[in-house]
Amino acid sequence: MPIYTVEAPGLRRAVLAFRVGRADEAVAWAGLTHLVEHLALLSFKEQRYAYGGQVEGARTLFYVQGTDADIREFLQRLCENLRALPLDRLAAEARLLETEAQSRQGSALGSLLATRYGCQGWGLIGYPEFALQHPQPDRVRAWADDWFTADNAALGLSGPIDLLPVLDLRPGRRMASPALTPVFSLRTPAWTYDREPGLGMGFVAPHSVRFSALLRVLERHGRSRLRFGESLSYDVSSATLRLGHEFAHGTVWADGLPENLSKVLNGMLAVLDEVMEKGPSEDELHDDVEALRKSVDTRGGQWPCSTLS
């Protein structure tokens, strides 16, 4: 198992990551990874240390923050749970996750990915977790046995490596990244309609610092025009999602009232044209670098003491 260490202030932290996520599932069984993640953490409940888990597009993370003893205990118990999931609680956990899904709002990211990739691979992020409606113990167990293995994992630690516990995971194989296979009939630029009250723009590009910086420039210009200039949008934001080793998906989002969405669209298209023509200014790049430096310098705060979805 690859092990990565980094010097960091504050309490010790560890992350056990598996190369599996929503993009590896099939549409009829979307949510299997989420079920495994919740079942693996079910026995922990309230703890004196911070811990949690989350399922992303192509990886599942389990993390802990505390003393050396806390980290050893968490990782050892977690691996024991992954080898023997409490499947007697499967139906109850599926019901709980369905309850969570009902309170979760849709996202522009999910809609854009579903439009680009359809009901497979990365597009499944925009689809419901249908496996929660008909959970099957044998299928959940097989999913854990195939994907949550020592050979498909990596461990990250803050501080020296001498605290490393024995991680008793099944052997397996290193899984390749999910394929980027767009819908055959898709021709870009394209558009789709969703119920979310706003405008989302999605871009795919080689993963790089430059791409992330470009999205933040679009966000800044969009906020300047649509919020402070024309009072059409309250929230203008951007985000990036890593799609394997080479590419990333970037999203720019601007909300707005239904009667104003055509103006929001025209405003964001004008911002896009402006940035494409002129690019960012030196002051903008300087501010962006300073903001990134501050975010790195202030990392090390507490992680939430609950499981994340």
Topology:
Elements: E1 3-6, E2 12-18, H1 32-41, E3 50-55, E4 60-66, H2 68-83, H3 90-103, H4 108-117, H5 137-147, E5 153-158, E6 198-206, H6 209-229, E7 236-243, E8 247-255, H7 261-278, H8 282-297
Parallel strand pairs: 1-5
Antiparallel strand pairs: 2-4, 2-5, 3-4, 6-8, 7-8
Description:
The protein has 309 residues and is α+β, with helices and mostly antiparallel strands. It folds into 2 domains: 3-105 and 127-163, 2-Layer Sandwich (Cytochrome Bc1 Complex, Chain A, domain 1), CATH 3.30.830.10; 198-278, 2-Layer Sandwich (Cytochrome Bc1 Complex, Chain A, domain 1), CATH 3.30.830. The chain contains 8 helices and 8 strands. It has helices at residues 32-41, 68-83, 90-103, 108-117, 137-147, 209-229, 261-278, 282-297; strands at residues 3-6, 12-18, 50-55, 60-66, 153-158, 198-206, 236-243, 247-255. A 5-stranded mixed sheet has the order 1-5-2-4-3, with helices on one face. A 3-stranded antiparallel sheet has the order 6-8-7, with helices on both faces. A hairpin with a 3-residue loop joins strand 7 (236-243) and strand 8 (247-255). The protein is globular and about 55 Å long. It starts with a strand and ends in a 12-residue tail after the last helix. The model is unreliable at 300-309 (pLDDT under 50).
